[in-house]
Design a protein that fits this description.
Layout lengths: L1 H7 L2 E4 L6 H31 L6 H18 L2 H10 L3 E3 H34 L4 H4 L2 H27 L8 E2 L6 H4 L7 H35 L4 H29 L5 H26 L1 H35 L1
Parallel strand pairs: 1-3
Antiparallel strand pairs: 1-2
């Protein structure tokens, strides 16, 4: 099937976000800055959690994995789009298009399950605090992360297999800056209505159902927190609010794109930019600005780095004097 598809459609043309050279340069600058900020911000969270022993807890273990997924989600298509603005090369091979579809659904599917795991962690911590240590053990955390990746792989494989069955024999212009099924399947030489129903059933309904479950769990958590007026409850409220903001920003565009796969391309482009470029950088911003523990740990890490840099010249100078004296 792969060979048959490639014989009729060897590559696709990514139309991008605009044909205007001025807008392309604007997007190049903005998206480059956002991409660098995403990698630096999420890397800083990962390093901070690893270095600071006070953050070696289930919640921050899951947050670290979320940052890794966000960096991956920002990297599956953004670097190519940035380089395409410079080179003017906007084509992508058939296999390259399938690769983008695979990694997009891998990272989004994994992040959906991971966000549900983070919701479960906060639910147990706030609603069943006495049983938290026995329920959310390190082994359970690892199992949740592994399960999220397994689900992500299974989901992405189903999307790729579906794409391989599509016959492409007509236009090859993808009205987006990366390949995804809602825009690619509309180029297939079959009835797009049936394909749209498949998209809704395999991605749209799943995303909507997971969002409803997450929304209900956070409502329960917030109601529980509201009945406790303490400093710990205030911190829990801040943490859960940050989690819910991340959930809403991630699920909102996904639900719209996959529940209405035949909607306006302009809206799809805006939402695609949002959850592939903007959301990955918003996650570290939200968690660091609303989490006092992470901000404190980052200050300590910065001070250790500055102290290390200040100590280095003195260390090298003393070593140089010892070498001269020995000589």
């Amino acid at each position: 099937m792969d060979v048959a598809n490639k014989s009729t459609m060897s590559e696709f043309v990514l139309l991008g976000l605009s044909n205007s050279w001025e807008l392309q340069m604007f997007f190049f600058t903005v998206f480059s800055l956002f991409y660098v900020a995403t990698i630096v911000g999420n890397s800083l969270i990962v390093i901070t959690v690893i270095v600071d022993p006070h953050l070696h807890s289930p919640m921050y273990f899951l947050l670290t994995n979320l940052s890794i997924i966000d960096m991956s989600l920002a990297s599956f298509a953004t670097p190519k789009m940035i380089t395409d603005y410079l080179t003017g090369h906007k084509t992508i091979s058939f296999n390259g298009c399938l690769t983008q579809i695979f990694f997009l659904h891998l990272f989004t599917g994994t992040e959906i399950i991971l966000l549900m795991a983070m919701s479960f962690d906060r639910y147990i911590a706030i609603c069943k605090p006495l049983h938290y240590a026995s329920i959310i053990s390190p082994h359970v955390c690892v199992a949740l992360v592994v399960a999220s990746w397994i689900v992500g792989i299974m989901h992405s494989m189903s999307q790729v297999v579906f794409a391989l069955t599509l016959p492409f024999c007509g236009p090859n212009e993808v009205d987006s800056f990366f390949c995804d099924l809602p825009v690619v399947f509309q180029l297939a030489c079959v009835d797009t209505y049936v394909l749209g129903l498949f998209m809704i059933s395999t991605s749209g309904i799943i995303a909507l159902s997971c969002f409803i479950v997450l929304f209900d769990s956070y409502v329960i958590v917030l109601v529980t927190v509201k009945h406790h007026s303490s400093r710990g409850s205030s911190r829990a409220l801040s943490t859960c609010t940050a989690h819910f903001i991340v959930v809403f920003l991630f699920f909102g565009p996904c639900i719209f794109i996959y529940m209405w796969p035949l909607s306006s391309f302009l809206i799809d482009k805006i939402l695609s930019v949002f959850y592939t470029i903007f959301t990955p950088i918003l996650n570290p911003v939200i968690y660091t600005l609303r989490n006092q523990e992470v901000k404190t740990a980052m200050r300590k890490l910065k001070n250790r780095f500055l102290n290390f840099n200040n100590a280095m010249p003195a260390h090298y100078f003393s070593s140089y004097l010892l070498v001269l004296l020995n000589f």
